[in-house]
C-alpha cells in the first residue's frame, strides 16, 4: 500500500501567484483512471515549461503536475489491455495538460493513452525521443507523404538545436536528406554537423520582414518548430510543390501570408498536432521510431536531471537555450 508520492507540483498561492516545486502528495490525489503507472523517466518539452508557469493555453486548472511524456511500469490496471509489470509509454493526449503528468512517481491515466513499450527501445530511449521525437517523426512522415524524397533538394529545419529540431535534423540526415539547420546558436555549428546537417545558417536567413508574396525559391521542404515570421518566410521561400511541416510557436503564432505560394508554387503547409494523433497512427509512428527510423547514439542528445533539478531547465528552455533533449529520472 502506497500512501504518498513525490511530484513536481504547480499551484497558486493565496495572492494568486503561481508557485512550484517538488512535494509529496497523498496517493488519492491521482484520481481514479484505469491504469496506474510507476514512472521511471519523463522529459522536458517547451509545452511543459509553459505548464510549469500555469499558462492557461496549456493548463486548464491549478494545481497541476506537468510532464507531457512518461515511461514506466504498470503498477495496477482495471483494463485487461494492460497488466501489472508491463512496460509502457505515454506521450501527448491530455497528459501534463488537462491531466496531471509525468513529472511524478506515478500517473493514473486512461488505457487509450498508453502505448506498449515498442520493441527495440528502452524506457529511457523513449523519453529521449518523447513528444519531441514523436513530433519530428510525424514531420518527416508529412514530407514523405507529400512526395518529398531524399534527393528532392535542401530541407531546412528551424530551431535546430532544440528538442524537436535536433531529432528532425538527425532523422532526416539518417534517411539521406540534405539538411540545412537554422539556429540562433552559431557556436553549435559543429554539433549540428555531427547530427547530420550539411549546412548551418543563422535565423536571419529565414526571417524576411517584407510583404512580398513570394521570395526566391530555395527549399525543397522544411520542418518548422518556430512559427510566426519564420514560417511566413519559409512558405514564401519554398520551391514548386515544396512542403513545410509546421509544429512550433516559439517565435510567434501569427502568419501573414498571401495565397500566392499555394496557388503559384503548389506549396503544402502540413500541420502537426502530436497530442491529438489517433491511436493507430500513434502506434505506427512508435514502430517507425523503434524500427527503420531508429536513431543511433540517442544518449548523446540527452541531459538527465532529477525532479529537483528541473527548475533551472525550465528557465533555460523558455529562453531558447536548451540543446537537444532533457530527460527526467524519477
Ligand atoms: P525547444 O526549446 O527544445 O526548441 C526550440 C528551439 O527553437 C530552441 O532551442 C531554439 O533553437 C529555437 N528558438 C527558441 N526561441 C526562438 C525564437 N524566439 N525565434 C527563433 N527560434 C527560437 O522546444 P521543443 O523542441 O520542445 O518545442 C519546439 C516547438 O515545437 C515549441 O513551440 C513546441 O510548443 C512545439 N511543439 C509542438 C508539437 C505539436 O504537436 N505541434 C509537439 C512538440 C513541440 P536554436 O537556438 O537552434 O535556433
Automatic annotation (TrEMBL):
According to its UniProt record, what is one Pfam family this protein matches? Answer: ADH_zinc_N
Which SUPFAM superfamilies does the entry link to? Answer: GroES-like, NAD(P)-binding Rossmann-fold domains
**PANTHER family (UniProt xref):** ACRYLYL-COA REDUCTASE ACUI-RELATED, SHORT-CHAIN DEHYDROGENASE/REDUCTASE
Q: Does the keyword Methyltransferase apply?
A: no
The terms under GO molecular function for this entry are:
acryloyl-CoA reductase (NADPH) activity
Q: Which residues form the Enoyl reductase (ER) domain?
A: 21-328
Enumerate the UniProt keywords alphabetically: Oxidoreductase
**Organism placement in taxonomy:** Bacteria, Pseudomonadati, Planctomycetota, Planctomycetia, Pirellulales
Enzyme Commission (EC) number = 1.3.1.84
Question: What name does UniProt use for this protein?
Answer: Putative acrylyl-CoA reductase AcuI
Give the gene that encodes this protein: acuI
Amino acid at each position: 500500500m502506497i500512501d504518498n508520492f513525490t511530484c513536481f507540483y504547480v499551484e497558486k498561492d493565496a495572492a494568486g501567484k503561481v508557485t512550484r516545486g517538488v512535494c509529496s502528495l497523498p496517493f488519492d490525489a491521482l484520481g481514479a483512471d484505469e491504469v496506474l503507472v510507476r514512472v521511471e523517466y519523463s522529459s522536458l518539452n517547451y509545452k511543459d515549461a509553459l505548464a510549469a508557469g500555469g499558462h492557461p493555453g496549456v493548463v486548464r486548472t491549478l494545481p497541476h503536475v506537468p510532464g507531457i511524456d512518461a515511461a514506466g511500469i504498470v503498477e495496477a490496471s482495471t483494463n485487461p489491455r494492460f497488466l501489472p509489470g508491463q512496460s509502457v509509454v505515454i506521450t501527448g493526449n491530455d497528459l501534463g495538460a488537462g491531466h496531471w503528468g509525468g513529472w511524478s512517481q506515478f500517473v493514473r491515466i486512461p488505457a487509450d493513452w498508453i502505448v506498449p513499450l515498442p520493441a527495440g527501445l528502452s524506457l529511457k530511449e523513449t523519453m529521449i525521443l518523447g513528444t519531441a521525437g514523436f513530433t519530428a517523426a510525424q514531420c518527416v512522415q508529412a514530407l514523405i507523404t507529400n512526395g518529398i524524397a531524399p534527393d528532392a533538394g535542401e530541407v531546412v529545419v528551424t530551431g535546430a538545436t532544440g528538442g524537436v529540431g535536433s531529432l528532425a535534423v538527425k532523422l532526416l540526415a539518417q534517411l539521406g536528406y540534405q539538411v540545412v539547420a537554422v539556429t540562433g546558436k552559431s557556436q553549435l555549428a559543429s554539433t549540428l554537423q555531427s547530427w547530420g546537417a550539411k549546412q548551418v545558417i543563422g535565423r536571419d536567413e529565414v526571417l524576411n520582414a517584407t510583404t512580398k508574396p513570394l521570395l526566391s525559391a530555395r527549399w525543397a521542404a522544411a520542418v518548422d518548430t518556430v512559427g510566426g515570421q519564420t514560417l511566413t518566410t519559409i512558405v514564401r521561400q519554398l520551391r514548386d510543390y515544396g512542403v513545410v511541416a509546421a509544429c512550433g510557436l516559439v517565435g510567434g503564432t501569427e502568419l501573414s501570408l498571401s495565397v500566392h505560394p499555394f496557388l503559384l508554387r503548389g506549396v503544402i503547409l502540413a500541420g502537426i498536432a502530436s497530442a491529438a494523433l489517433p491511436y493507430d497512427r500513434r502506434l505506427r509512428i512508435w514502430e517507425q521510431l523503434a524500427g527503420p527510423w531508429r536513431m543511433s547514439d540517442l544518449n548523446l542528445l540527452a541531459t538527465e536531471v532529477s525532479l529537483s533539478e528541473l527548475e533551472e531547465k525550465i528557465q533555460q528552455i523558455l529562453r531558447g537555450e536548451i540543446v537537444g533533449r532533457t530527460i527526467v529520472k524519477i
